[in-house]
Design a protein that fits this description.
Alpha-Beta Plaits; single chain; T1-type_BTB
Amino acid sequence: GSAGALPPPAAASKWVRLNVGGTYFVSTRQTLCREPKSFLCRLCCQEGPELGSDKDETGAYLIDRDPTYFGPILNYLRHGKLIINKELAEEGVLEEAEFYNIASLVRLVKERIRDNENRTSQGPVKHVYRVLQCQEEELTQMVSTMSDGWKFEQLISIGSSYNYGNEDQAEFLCVVSRELNNSTNGIVKEPSEKAKILQERGSRM
């Protein structure tokens, strides 16, 4: 956007001009120093030889970054909210937040990206089904060890096939499923070790 008129020289110390990749931004020292560890704070508030900040002919700090994503960064420092226009990629803002070293903003953008992935898993949700065979006494244990998004679907009794002494053990098929959305990229996390052992035991008929 347009930077508007320059403030009178008296207020100049309070105002800071930034030239980000050829685009001018005007802000106050107070805003830029909101995050003490950030690159912008070091740039404007601890102007020392170690940063060796270059200024252009207008006296603006030169920053060799993409101005497109600088808006959300600056606005975040102004009011503490993360506002990203629809056409801006969150990953781009994340990249800049990391460059400017604004930890709280990095966290916010990552959360936003995660939420979006969960919301917009394109297309219908696919399900993966597994059938595990187990005995009655192993059921509760197995259901309680199901991990990572596996849901219990159905229990099918297949009668008793084992005879331990006089004691019949009821056998069951346990059907479990999990959603396969895009954020898992089709990688099905294996069930926990316990469930695996039960599976093997079940298949050794």
